[in-house]
Amino acid sequence: MHEREIAEEQQFLEEAYAAHSRLLEEAETNRKRFAVPLEGGPGDMEVREASMETFMRRIEDLQVGETALYFGRLDFLPEANRGDRPFRLGRLSISDEDQNQLIVDWRAPVAEAFYRATAVENFDVHRRRHVSIRSRRVVSVEDEYLGGEIDSVSGELVETDEGYVEGSLTVGGPAALLAALGRARTGRMGDIVATIQREQDEIIRSPLNCVLLVQGGPGTGKTAVALHRAAYLLYTYRTQLERQNGVLVVGPNPVFMHYISNVLPSLGESGVTLLTTGRMVRGVTVTGRESDTLAQLKGDVRMVRVLARAMATRQRSLRQEVEIPFGVTVLRVQPDDTASIVERAKSRPGQHNPRRSAVGRELAHVLAQQYRKKVGPASFTSFADDNELKDAIRALPAFKECVQRIWPRLTGQDLVRDLFGAEALLRVAGRGVLTDDEIALLVRPRGDSMDDVAWTEADLPLIDEARALLGPRKKPRTASKVVDSELSMDDIEMLPEHVRGAAVRDRRANTRVLARDYDEAEFIKYGHIVVDEAQDLSAMQLRVIARRTDTGSMTIVGDMAQATTAAASASWEETLRVIGVTKEPVRVDLTVSYRTPEEVLTFAQPTLREAMPTLAPPEPIRRVGVSPRIVPVDDLHAGLVTTVREELSEISDGRVAVIVTTTRVVEIVNALRAGGLDAADPESSPEGGLAADVVVIAAEGANGLEFDGVIVVEPSEIASRGGAPGSVTPRGLRTLYVSLTRPTRRLALVHTLPLPPTVTQGPQT
């Protein structure tokens, strides 16, 4: 049981926790010291702000909660010249009072050997130790000897019903990995920092300035790898990335984003931005739904041309003369004058809205000349100069209205609403690009106001595209916001008495902090973007993401076999083409499934083979000793309640997901609740729903999620997605493949309808 080694690690753990407490106390003391100008002096505001930010971040990093301070140890061979002390690896770096490093951050260069060393290529490692810690107690250690006199793994794997696949690939820290994989789900994704494998580490530590494409099947850990890569990049390139707004992680939906939200904080990174493509489009709320056919059309890259043409139709000369009263006379705007002005404005570079000022200037110049001719030199003397005359003309409401008719100032919402609300405009913009049936499908009532529009998810990328074409409606400016002092009254009570007065005064005073007031058409750009479940993004959504990077540095993660949305890309080549990558992409395939058991992958193989024959399934390393079961029932609701209870009893410490078509979610939730089960719909409550013992998930939104047990309801309905009832479609089969591969332990299928042809295996109960 390695009692001596456990005692050794326990002693070190206690020393590490003592050092951790000291570091936290020092950070708190420094925070309070810089929170107010001591001795009542004015202080240096910039120094105080920078210092406060540093110490607040340090305090946040040190808040580890119940997370183990470290998880691994490296003992190097003498010829490695690494000194006599072993290296312990953890989620953050910790030093003792003499600045001796007790724990090394897992992202440090020396830690690479922990993840990549093997008996063949040992990186000068003599021993690699995995340390399991719970509630500040060392419960087990696992030693692997990779060099020197001993060349073996201490302790052998015991073949049980739940263990490794016979002949599976060699993995690092096998016992620690198996323990982690067999642990019950919590409703949140956890980090894999203690069990990262060699192929995963190579992806995580790839250079910053590249386009990295990661293809990985179910259970390969591609999402976890992508998130650990974000943490690694921030650690290694922090200064550069902080100048570029850091790292953006893009996910498919709010439920998924909540599912992964704990991973980066657990790795010591809280500055990463997590968004869906919809959340990137600021200021628009989704309240409507639409058919898959319409969503697919709106996601088509052809909509770029349609929107550009729609914008061009709004840049038009007047058809009739317009009168503008000005003082004692009436100025007349002639159609020919506006035609030449519009032509010149169209030839100018830049976006639509910024070019509007040139239209106004030219038109004001024409009218100023007309005014001089009409009133003569005597009346002109009422204006100090020519610029004052033009300013007076531009201030006229009638003039502004005229310019708006010629070259309107528009928002992205304006352009999309007007386009879809006018069939004639759609026909002009879509001529030669869209079919008549497609144009008819896009038409919808314009409504009397913007509040009448029920925006859909597929509208958001179109609004974003329109904003990129139109540009900002106003000049960017800097605004100020008010920020309270970080010092609380409890903090003040702990300060020396002679500085409390200054502390109270400083707390009452507000600090003015400059903040950028972004126009909706200004896009916040990031130093690196991680895109997860990228296979499901439409061309228009991919363009939303591409607009958020200047450097082109991206990590794109997904599985083409799990492309389930109507507008999903046909291939990775198409995805990269739409994004417009300027650098040669590096493709890496994750081929080993760590979390999805062999029994489940074998059961799902026929569905994968039919849906995506060119993709090979990942190779499993783990089995659970339980085959998927097929449960035919006469009464769907009663049979499902019974099956859920059976699955819960088998995994009493875990969670069960019931996967159905979108149209059945409410029905199944109600049926389970009527049967006495506390079922939750995560989509209606993304922050808490996944933590329930029983959750009901739409198959369309199951990508990326994992559960201990999964029950797939009416597989044939899922397999017919995008087609007629009873049919089998490629998209439906991909959706079914996703559904079948969500469990880490148990899988069951409940059905009243005939099963799809690809689901022919498994015991019936």
Short recap of the structure:
With 765 residues, the chain is an alpha/beta fold.
Please describe what this structure looks like.
The protein has 765 residues and is of the alpha/beta class. It has five domains: 3-181, no CATH class; 211-282 and 530-590, Rossmann fold (3-Layer(aba) Sandwich); 292-313 and 411-470, no CATH class; 322-406; 598-751, Rossmann fold (3-Layer(aba) Sandwich), CATH 3.40.50.300. 40% of the residues lie in helices and 17% in strands. The chain is built from 29 helices and 26 strands. The protein has a six-stranded mixed beta sheet with strand order 3-4-2-1-5-6, covered by helices on one side. A six-stranded parallel beta sheet has the order 10-9-15-16-8-17. A six-stranded parallel beta sheet has the order 21-26-25-22-24-23. The longest helix is centred in the first third of the chain and has 33 residues, at 3-35. It is globular and about 105 Å long. The chain starts with a helix and ends in a 14-residue tail after the last strand. The model is unreliable at 38-43, 150-160 and 507-515 (pLDDT under 50).
